[in-house]
Amino acid sequence: MPAPLRVLGTAHLHGLSPNRREGVILVAAFGPQYLAICEVAAGVDEAVALRLRCRARLPDWPLEVAWAQEILVVAYGRVFLELWHLEEGALRQGVRLPGPAEVSFLYSAALRVDAFDVAGAGVGAVCAGGTFDGFVVLWPAGKAEALQLAGHQGAIFRVRLFDANTIVTASDDRTVRVWGTAASPLGAEPPAEGADVGGWRCLAVCRGHGCRVWDALLADAPTGALVVSASEDSIVRVFSAGGVLLRRLSGHQTRGVRCLELLEHSVASGGEDGAVKLWPLDLGGEVSVRSWQVPQPEDWIREVVVLSHLRALVATNFGKLYRLQLTEGEDEVNATLLFQHDGACFTSMAAASAHIWAGCADGRGCIVAESEGEPSGTWVEVFHQCRVGAAFASEEEGLFCDHQGRVQQWLPGPAPRLKATWRLGGEKNRRLLCAERVLGSWLLGDEHGVVHALKEPLQFRKCHEGKVLALRALEEPGEFLSAGADGAVLRHRLAEGAEVSWAVLGTFRPGCGLRHLAQLAVLEEEDAMPQMLIGAFQSADFVLWDSAANLELWRFRCGGAKRPHGLVADRRSFTFAFSSGSKTLEFHSTFAMDDQVGLKKPLHGREIHQACWLQPGLLATASEDTTLRLLRAGDGQNSEPEGTVVRFPGAVRALCAAKLAEPLLLSGGAKGALRAHLAGRPVWATSLAAEDPVKIEGEEESRLEERIMALGCVSFSRELLVAAASSSGLLRSWRLDVERCLSGGNADATFLRRCQVSGTTALCMTCLGSADAASAASAASAASAASAAAALVGSADGKLSACDLGPEAPEVFQVQLHDAGLNDLALESDLADPTAVRVVTAGDDHRIALARLRRTSGRWVLVSSMRVEAHSSAVKAVAWASGRVLSLGLDRRLRVWQPETLQQEAEQVTCCTEPETLAVRPLGDRLILALAGRGVEICSLRSSPLPG
């Protein structure tokens, strides 16, 4: 972290305005009558340096500063604008632009600046200000006329221009207002109140703040536009675009929240407690509330098990078991009576697979089998004259426990069988509160902070100062988490051998003084302490806490932890259920179904660079963690990792699948390593240094270390042509003997040649041959296969290169399609012209481009090209699907485009974080998509909206 820099002397720093340039960020810092320019530069070691460039004294109190190239526009409290020129490291005062005469003073201001001409006259600049008496003043720079929007009943502390047609204001009257014209993105909203003034009207009023509102902004979240506010009562609130309060975020302590800033799909807040907190806006949208009441007034809820976002089980004190089903879009909760036994009083319940395990107050246990017919229950005698205090279940068996440390292990079936009986040592009263299966054995947490392992001999360990409330197994064998009433989450490792070893690997404590940690939902396990959502109780409130961001996501007053409750949570949504007054079960949920179904798996320890389908249901992934893995997944089936894990000497960057009798996978990465696997069997391995080393000019013994960044191949009748593009912009090609591979031998590879296709790093590539382009089919024999094949390469300078793969030195064709790196490309034959192909590309400049290329007599010609702004951040991947173009951006949007005009047709928000690659495979009337980045998301989209 860089050392702090005092830029305004002893004056307060009131605001910052950054201006990004190549390699440098200039920041305008302003306070009472001072303006300073600071330089923020990042070194090669990623260290950040701060340097004061210049400083100037201002004629009045500045409210806002905006950049227009080398000019700074300053808005002052006395209602005028002033231009300051940054020239040769110094600030020079320029033209003053007076504001409307009827307004004497502003308390806040916002600027929208498009450009200024050389003479200094404002062009396309708009200022919006807030006054002490609650008016919003809007005027073009240099113009005397102004619009005044009335509505607030107090001083306006903050004004923000979301765009040219939308304004957000925060006021002393404890409200936030959204103003807009008919051209605003929110213009379809009905007016909240007040009359239309010059085309402007109040679109929404956000109420519910306990104190003054210091700041507010409008955020474009995955679930729609949201209004976020920062208040003096230390709470960040999230409203819908219509002004409906959705969430209260209570992370700051004791003092007010002063400022907000938007970061992707999160909001950062700064408070008077000195803390900066990050609030994700993509975890759920509006919290829906639904409730269910027990049918009989004498009944009351004893136990709740939340199975999923849409299903739950309830046990009552009058021997009834209910299955509850929630339907999206409906307010009612559908209940089905699964089982009833007169005279029974259920005290505990657990569920797994097709069985429900319920314990009774008289010491009996009931095992209910859920089948297609009417559920049947079998009673077993568990404890004599002692209530069953807890029940736990796994796929294979169940446990019944009492409050004295006695545990019975049962196997289900038509005649349930007692497998084992255990007696835990220690205090007489030893209630068991949670359980989990690790390494084939049960772990139990009790009320004294001890975790017990049911194995011979009995193992136990004091883990928490208070109750053990939750246990969760991790994917790493033998590792699990425990959470307790002492406010700590511990990561453990059990190892079996001659002696059982038990080690605590790490500890995590959430903030805000949370102690009663009752629920754990693990999101990712790549760090020493996994990323998780923690369900905790603070007095009578339930709190959902994000361990990665260390902040509170949601809080609700539910009465406390002693009432039956349950939680299901993942990265996108959560569902919390609790018993209200023992008669009603309330469901609070942000879950919403969409058109994609699938899963999210971490799979690798680092980011995934490439993914490709080998065959239906079998996906290969290449990662920065030096491994190549296979994942078996598809529409409507579970996703399980295959046994194949290939390790490279460094990051695996590139994958390519060849269409042979059996799937052949080509992979490459760091240190120029290149490998081939046929049906999981290695058939070829080489490296660029071994095959074709490149010497560094002027250094006799040194060789250029290259990474393979992209791979492509063309399959012919008897051989496979393989091409690899490297970090030095070189393209190399090999010819592989396919028949030897298919007959059980290793590939006989012949190196063909190399050529320079780019002056910078190659990022992506695809190949086409006689099977891909009619123009290449003129040479159909295997001997001329290389001459009939070509490669298209995208590079870090935004250029698309094309060249033939024949033995002779090719003529490289290049065209500039993007202003920054060309991250991915996909091609499709042009049905209207057999000699042409259509290539869609993804760029770091937020655009996608579509180019039409023609190849005749070994020469490439650009026929046409177009590009459009596609995403709000870098576009990482593109693909052709059912005659349409798919694009995937870092903004986590998957978009569908009409290829003729590049008009957007559909959009889907994905749950894959930091996506890098996209693989598509048709399956019937659906498209199976693999999205990979920080994890793998397998989902399916209906292809019916995609004609053709």
TrEMBL record:
Gene3D superfamilies: YVTN repeat-like/Quinoprotein amine dehydrogenase
InterPro entries: tRNA_Anticodon_Mtase-Reg, WD40/YVTN_repeat-like_dom_sf, WD40_repeat_dom_sf, WD40_rpt
Residue windows of the WD repeats: 149-179, 868-907
Keyword field contains Cytoplasm: yes
Keyword tRNA processing annotated: yes
SUPFAM superfamilies reported for this sequence: WD40 repeat-like
GO biological process, one term: tRNA methylation
UniProt cross-references to SMART domains, sorted A to Z: WD40
Any Gene Ontology CC annotation: cytoplasm
Localization annotation: Cytoplasm
Family listed: Belongs to the WD repeat WDR6 family.
Protein name from the UniProt record: WD repeat-containing protein 6
Naturally occurring in which organism (per UniProt): Effrenium voratum
